[in-house]
Specification:
Chains A, B, C, D, E, F, G, H: It comes from Methanoculleus nereidis. Chains A, B, C, D, E, F, G, H: This is Nickel pincer cofactor biosynthesis protein LarB. Chains A, B, C, D, E, F, G, H: InterPro entries: P2CMN_synthase_LarB, PurE_dom. Eight copies of one chain form a homooctamer. Chain A has 246 residues and is α/β, with parallel strands linked by helices. The termini of chain A are far apart. Chain A has nine helices and nine strands. In chain A, the strands form two sheets. In chain A, strands 6-5-7-8-9 form a five-stranded parallel β-sheet, sandwiched between helices. In chain A, strands 1-2-4-3 form a four-stranded mixed β-sheet, sandwiched between helices. In chain A, strand 8, helix 8 and strand 9 form a beta-alpha-beta unit. At the A-B interface, helix 2, helix 8, strand 9 and helix 9 of A face helix 2, helix 8, strand 9 and helix 9 of B.
Chain lengths: 246, 246, 246, 246, 246, 246, 246, 246
Amino acid sequence: MYRNGEVSEDEAAGALEGLRIEVLDGMARIDAGRSVRCGMPEVVLAEGKEPEAFAEIMLAQVKAAGRCVATRLSPEHLDALRARLPPDVRMEHREAARAVILSTGDEPVPPRGGTVAILTAGTSDIPVAEEARLIAEEMGCEVRTAYDVGVAGIHRLFSALKDLIPADVFIVAAGREGTLPAIVAGLVDRPVIGVPVSTGYGYMGGGEAALASMLQSCSVLAVVNIDAGFTAGAFAAQVAHGGRRE
Amino acid sequence: MYRNGEVSEDEAAGALEGLRIEVLDGMARIDAGRSVRCGMPEVVLAEGKEPEAFAEIMLAQVKAAGRCVATRLSPEHLDALRARLPPDVRMEHREAARAVILSTGDEPVPPRGGTVAILTAGTSDIPVAEEARLIAEEMGCEVRTAYDVGVAGIHRLFSALKDLIPADVFIVAAGREGTLPAIVAGLVDRPVIGVPVSTGYGYMGGGEAALASMLQSCSVLAVVNIDAGFTAGAFAAQVAHGGRRE
Amino acid sequence: MYRNGEVSEDEAAGALEGLRIEVLDGMARIDAGRSVRCGMPEVVLAEGKEPEAFAEIMLAQVKAAGRCVATRLSPEHLDALRARLPPDVRMEHREAARAVILSTGDEPVPPRGGTVAILTAGTSDIPVAEEARLIAEEMGCEVRTAYDVGVAGIHRLFSALKDLIPADVFIVAAGREGTLPAIVAGLVDRPVIGVPVSTGYGYMGGGEAALASMLQSCSVLAVVNIDAGFTAGAFAAQVAHGGRRE
Amino acid sequence: MYRNGEVSEDEAAGALEGLRIEVLDGMARIDAGRSVRCGMPEVVLAEGKEPEAFAEIMLAQVKAAGRCVATRLSPEHLDALRARLPPDVRMEHREAARAVILSTGDEPVPPRGGTVAILTAGTSDIPVAEEARLIAEEMGCEVRTAYDVGVAGIHRLFSALKDLIPADVFIVAAGREGTLPAIVAGLVDRPVIGVPVSTGYGYMGGGEAALASMLQSCSVLAVVNIDAGFTAGAFAAQVAHGGRRE
Amino acid sequence: MYRNGEVSEDEAAGALEGLRIEVLDGMARIDAGRSVRCGMPEVVLAEGKEPEAFAEIMLAQVKAAGRCVATRLSPEHLDALRARLPPDVRMEHREAARAVILSTGDEPVPPRGGTVAILTAGTSDIPVAEEARLIAEEMGCEVRTAYDVGVAGIHRLFSALKDLIPADVFIVAAGREGTLPAIVAGLVDRPVIGVPVSTGYGYMGGGEAALASMLQSCSVLAVVNIDAGFTAGAFAAQVAHGGRRE
Amino acid sequence: MYRNGEVSEDEAAGALEGLRIEVLDGMARIDAGRSVRCGMPEVVLAEGKEPEAFAEIMLAQVKAAGRCVATRLSPEHLDALRARLPPDVRMEHREAARAVILSTGDEPVPPRGGTVAILTAGTSDIPVAEEARLIAEEMGCEVRTAYDVGVAGIHRLFSALKDLIPADVFIVAAGREGTLPAIVAGLVDRPVIGVPVSTGYGYMGGGEAALASMLQSCSVLAVVNIDAGFTAGAFAAQVAHGGRRE
Amino acid sequence: MYRNGEVSEDEAAGALEGLRIEVLDGMARIDAGRSVRCGMPEVVLAEGKEPEAFAEIMLAQVKAAGRCVATRLSPEHLDALRARLPPDVRMEHREAARAVILSTGDEPVPPRGGTVAILTAGTSDIPVAEEARLIAEEMGCEVRTAYDVGVAGIHRLFSALKDLIPADVFIVAAGREGTLPAIVAGLVDRPVIGVPVSTGYGYMGGGEAALASMLQSCSVLAVVNIDAGFTAGAFAAQVAHGGRRE
Amino acid sequence: MYRNGEVSEDEAAGALEGLRIEVLDGMARIDAGRSVRCGMPEVVLAEGKEPEAFAEIMLAQVKAAGRCVATRLSPEHLDALRARLPPDVRMEHREAARAVILSTGDEPVPPRGGTVAILTAGTSDIPVAEEARLIAEEMGCEVRTAYDVGVAGIHRLFSALKDLIPADVFIVAAGREGTLPAIVAGLVDRPVIGVPVSTGYGYMGGGEAALASMLQSCSVLAVVNIDAGFTAGAFAAQVAHGGRRE
């Protein structure tokens, strides 16, 4: 660039500054359209945030967007939110999903079409599944669930699958060895998303064995991070919207 | 089970044997329908198989199913296959995908609808992307690609995305830090599948950093195993079929 | 499958649905016989379950099966269980095994034959060993134990082995470097199952060093997961039943 | 020990020396009986040994014990052995198991009773399975096998299980996600030994995912090291001998 | 050394002792100049220290050096410090940085020139960023910050960068997938230091994914340890001093 | 977003498409200025690229940019490049750095000011250091080196440091325990960049121990990936340019 | 062994039993001399033991051996011990070492000769160092210490070394990057034992980086487990006894 | 430092430069005495060095020091050395240790007293043991060895120990589970150094299981890096010299 020597260093530096500012101005205008582009609800991860700071972020979001979801709440997060809740903001607590929904209006989420099926191997996997359900519903999908169908016996899996088969996409949450997603993927012809859950113990018991098993599976599976109910729900909703976009 | 003492051990053992056989008989009839259910092509992973054994498996498969794909071939696998190829089996070598397709007839794969977009960050990610493309095409999807759009400059990404946006689903293959899938997921509202590629070096350079980065992403992404072009292609095809099933 | 073009997509989709439902119906009938087939007691892992949910699961199980075991109980689990215990359910608390047994009748577990020997290297390994013992006893085996024979001096090991040698199978629980199982396997001609215990500290001190050492052993050993007393006990009982099946 | 001060340091040192020698003399007499105690064949791991040194070890072993097995041979090991083979030593090459058996006599291994069933998920797992078979046969067991029953379709598994069910113990070798052992363990009431095989790729593809999955399994499984056909075969033979000892 | 045999062992040993003492004397004089050489403030890591011991170390340091900083304080550390604070020592508590500054005089830190820009991807990364800011300010730099510019939308990043671009060096703190530093490094021509933050969850969620991603980045980045605000701040100050040394 | 129901789905979808295209158009114009902004030379990583494809990429780059560098070349890469080299492209082979420089003109890289000092602990670290040197020189810096000053004795380090001290920034490459960067950082008051090198053996011997040691260092160090000579050189050049920008 | 068929199975089994018992009898007599042979004090690791069980083990040990040490005590362990302490047992609490010594008599440990030097890099490493000191003193060695000589400045190291140089062996405890042991090993000609301490944070901050760094060191070092003050002290005492055995 | 404002920046900078130079001058004089201080032979690690560069380093070393050792030689290293060997340099090739010794004179290494015992578990551990032996002999110690005493039967261990017991220190090399060092440490009262060897396979089979097992051992052991024969030999020689220093 400076190689031809025709531009002095000062000139080059000045030009660079100019270019950079212009670039940044251009780009700043772009991102405003992001939430429209990607169709995601506003979701705040409570875990790791100070309760007060968390509550303020939530209230700012609901003012701006009319509706806002928080996941992985501790009781302290919930208390901080309750203490600050203005009268015109509605709060819905989804205990099983460790989540809350704030909204300024009464309208439900408008349906966008598409059905998401969610299964869990055991009862310990249910909070992660419920987080996925909440997100998929917030994105306008119908959700059907069948929980504890891995541990309680494979006959429950099959009777459950009969009800779920019309779904557009399957989320399967499983801890320990994490094989239920692969079994489901071998029985249905729709996309199956595996969610490893941190419910094992001992060697790679924090969900790593389940993650590894799903990644190595001979079945066709896509996976998300350990305990990542939010990502699974949002990805599944994107898939489920598929046939309804046109 | 033996607890009530009403059944002698011998009786119980006999009953068990009977039950088990009956169960197995029932189950054996079930699996025959599997390939119909899941809509996958027959795919053989050449890597790790003796060339001769590999060639025999392939020929048996093509006889049984009319069409058969092999991935991750070494030159030795290819030679063994060529040496044994009967005159009535057609062999198509896809070098960029390190794959071959055997078939007994001339009909192309019938289109099942749906479009899959495949992007790569760099040129080293192309073989994995080509493996994904081959599988998606074998499953009846249209595939559009844009390779080397991460390293060569983000402007190539954007001009590429304009062409690809009508796609039903995106596959994004990336090595090293593996951030391209998250960037794409922030710009499109369709499902994005990240494929970590083993093209880095140093710390976690065998694709592990890319895998971890994709799993941790704040964007909505699902991932497959490192270098798992086959899984990405088949999963994407399942997603792309979505709107065309009814 | 769709390749020959002779079946329209609609026909194929309809056939698929039919096949799938039929398959599932067939399979659902199968699993009912599972607990009979495998001869396992009903065991609930308390760890990671909400105390109330845990108590409800236990009571449902004991109603259905007449007898039910829970392992890895916290005091909260125990309290929740006690608070809900109906008068017709007997509860036996095995403190050393961190376990309880619920039963609706008074009959003891009927003996199925076979003797399991259980050894531990140190005193910290005893809870895991006691969990194994409980399961083996629930499966109708006689159990003999020799605890703390690794740390307290090898002479205790040898005098213990003299008492234990008639056993059909040996379980050896050990933490830190986990070498006791290999030593026992070098002295007896019966199967030896190593159980790594999470009682070390520092580098790989959570049982990983013991697991690795047992897996690498030149002695003939099979291993179970770190702290997996349940699996060791159930596997050993299966081995011990061996000679008594006919 | 030196604490009471009644023994001078010199006296103590002298006593120690004496005690130690006496101890060692006593112990040396003990180990001679080891191979009798544990009932193992003499097995040499060729891998990692210089071909010449390997051949010499083998010939020394067969002279001393009449029969000797070597596993994991390279062609170089085989050549070195052939070049040195005396006329009175018989060599049997088991190619599928990457093994040889040397013997000085013609008698076959005397049967000790017991049947071992060996299954593999795919064709790549066969060498490990064959190593296990060889060892179990060398220990006097009958062996029945069913290979490639995981990948080629679950119906093959069930028809295979019907033939194998009378076995005393099952060895199941599987790579990638390694779930076949758990499936088998859910269907039979005999002990099942999982052998993780290094046939995957990508994240934990060297058998680690299979190992983790087997250790985390909700089914009752014991496992051996990755690719450890020898250990699986010997352990299974010990189990199979069980009912025939009395 | 002893090889020529001309020096007796005793002589050699004596000479060695002498040499060693002399060497040590020489070296002891050297280190006194260290803090002058490296231009670092005195910083004490509170984490892992007993509160009382910590307080004593701090007071000794401030007496000796006139000014002293402590990072990663718990409330207990703070209490212990407050309880022992002599009237002539001023204590400034920087809550956001989990830090305190003790000083014996009133003079502010003299400016040494240079500007450090600090960005964070999310709000959870702010404590680490504030620790970096404190250190850079203690080293005489001007600091400008832009927090939460990754999660809240890329348009905030660009408007922030316009304000920060005159800075001499950039610190970018990010958790989860840790990609913000690479994005910044692609937009500015000044050195960018990535700080991985332990704010993720699941697989490599303790900052390891962010660390790996930054190390593998195709952008030009240098990194410091996970959560290492101190190191980032001090390194950045060294860079920022650069143009002002002459 | 669709929540107020005032926009029909079709309208929303249409608007989205429009927005997206517009956004992409805007962004595409931006990136063209990237290489100007960041002041990096064009560098191609040969490792992992097919020799022919590599050569074509290089020639395309040199045509476009006038000058182009490739690192980590194998002899095959070099041969492929030589075979395709047009007469008007000059090729300079830097063997010690495993690199080549292609250029279309004769002008040397114009100096941009700033001095980079590069040290290595041992001789095995030199190729990585030479890669760093090449990049820093390509970016217009003066480079001074002192190699093998860690292993050969600390007196060589000190005499080397005396020559290097006027440098603006230090790169220190070290394998095994990787402590030389921390020692240098304790002796100079300029920024020190540690480069872990994969020259150890045994436990974490592929550079991981050196990386961990540098990240944990109490000295103020920033690090780059294992063997990442390119990144170290480019980052150091950015630092060195610092004082010369105004 | 059973191969020649000359011994019936029954005979063989009987002989085996006999041999085994005899072996065990012989071995049981051997171990009684172990503590005499190895010269170790009786040491109980409190960590991971129930306070009551711990107290009972301690009291049994002190009765049997006259003197007994416990390390890694929590306040609960201490309380349990105090509550059960009989009047004729003396208890000495070494707070800095997190240890207690129980004894039934008044005699101090008789000196066995030898001097152990113990250094720490920082103040956080002192508890581990104190544990090592306690053990070495219990084994009759003189111990000299120099703490906090790494962080507080290398001049403190050198003045400390002058006092410590007559020692027979050096223990050096260090956390984070763990380089002090290598520095000491480069300055003294006596054996140096590195003890990694779990006082870092971030990547491999639990002592793993220090362990790796010590194992990779170019200096001649032997290491013990992370935080293993006991092992370091006992090993050092064995070395220090060296010259006094004759 | 600059805090009191009494020194201008220029003055301070000048003073710093002066101080630094003076410091470095002082330090440079110190290191010349290093090899005398530490009593190590000059040892060059051939692995990872270019054969030609390696040969030149060796010849420079032998000229300077009269004697020089190289370990881990490939045939290429050996050839390069032979091709350049001047007539006045003697070369001794120790094949079992993969080492050579160059010397300019005929005198053997003068004995410094002390005996080192070296044991190996198997035959694959011998090269590492021989490397240790070579170094200990070069440092003037007598060495006694007992190889293959772990795998071939524990009776060989005990008869071997009887011969080795007068040794001052024991080196025990073992791969796979690495338990032989702990067994030896339980039988002798002299220091035992464990050397993990990379001779296993499967999970942590590259020596990591052996390393972990030795670090976790309840016996008193110090360890060195995987395959680190050099370090073990040099450390053992330092211990063995102990009683002969006075």
